[in-house]
Design brief:
Shape: globular
Helix content: 25-40%
Radius of gyration: 22 Å
Mean pLDDT: 88
Strand content: 15-25%
Number of helices: 13
Distance between the termini: 41 Å
Number of strands: 18
Length: about 525
Amino acid sequence: MEAFETDVLVLGGGPAGLWSAIAAARAGARVVLADKGRCGASGPMAAGSTALWAVPPSGRADAVAAALAHGAGLGDAGLIHAVLDESYRRLTRLAHRGLRATPVPTVVAGEDDPAGPGGPLPARVRVSGVMYLRALRRYALAVGVVIRDNHPALRLLTDADGVVCAATGLRGGGRTWTASARAVVLATGGCAFGSGAPGTEVDTGDGLLFGAEVGAELSGMEFAGAYALIPAMGGAPFGLGAGSPLHGAALHDRTGAPLAGAELFEALARGRGVFAGTAALSAAARRQVLRYRVLDQQGRVPLRPVLHGTVLGSGGLVTAGDGATTVPGLFAAGDVTSREGVVGAGGGHGGAWAIASGVWAGSGAAVFAGVGGPVRVRVPQGAGAVPAGLRSVCRFDPRAVVGSVREHTVPPRRSYWRSAGTLRDTVAELDGLWPAARFELGGSGAGALRSRQAVALLAAARWSAHAALARTESRGLHRRTDHPAAEPSGLARIRVGGLDAVWLRRDPLPASLTAAPPRTA
């Protein structure tokens, strides 16, 4: 077994993990970053280009107002201001380090001139996900971060006082590792429920499970119905977003009738099919579409919905302003955290949130670790109860668990449109599956990782379903066919947690929340 010790341990090598590691290292902490795959080359960010919030001070009032409207009453104006400020400052520094970005304002056909290093940033910029992650990895290495690729974590450890002080995991060849740390940052990404959305194969909800096992709380898990459309044929690594060759393409059904908004998923749910037209695409876009062989015989691009879950939604671990969770010693950043304060009941803006929450969590973890102060030695408790899905022998097929999770989360009739009937069915099915997954899954090496990921997917799906059943209204990404309107009682956060028995708590929001003054990052 490999054992190492550090001040701050960061689990996850996406943008939030890298920003956390950079911030902690710049604060003087020794930092180790352990990634499930290769840091800088896996995850949704690496699957294509991405648009990031980069709003200069002069345009922030409008950006905050738009975000609050998008959040359907659950946003926090002060937090949005702080995220905008942090994102703009950090991206400006990366631009000075050579990161090239393309403006994404009101897009004009053919307008694709990249901003040069150090150039001014518009309201949003588009960056190549791979190039962005590579720039962050170089930055992290330059400030002394030790990066351990292909080191997936399996669990957290606490000391006798309940303070998180270590983690264990796997490395190549099935060997195990244990890392002792004064503070741990979870940046493991969200949960896409095994939907197959591009880049989300690593987004199995691991960090949500790790946090809940040591007592962390979650919020916003009902807002996990974030879908996107991708080509149904071929292996195209793009959808319809900014930077895609299909961005702006006209969408229609089999008869050629135009479709937009909720009509898209209504059409898919009724078997009408959704297609992207190619007639208006530029020559360069057409070449890219042809390259990936996504056209049918009529020259259209058939589309299918994929669930991005909490990756594009807003649910996750509850954190404070310094990235601290409700468990001492444990910090979190990025898609593993709840960003309800930024996007409310909506979704998106994960790139800006990764920057801001990553910087805050890394800085907060360095402070907790006591960098520059007296050393606090914390000893992990004994092994105690075996964590869910980590039995030495596997007596249940993890694929059965993943299949049930997919069946109850991925179809639009389950997560895009919801009702008490379907939600009760999901809760009963998944709760009934939990004992077998908890006590019968396990194995060693890669088998242990597969079992653990299956349990994490199941846990995330249960929290989402329980929270969705409790929110008896429609708001943002949460759409109830039996409660189609938003209700005043819905201006609340639904906290959730627990493993064998899921618990819920409704925390009403202060009436003045969205009118809060900007806070300093």
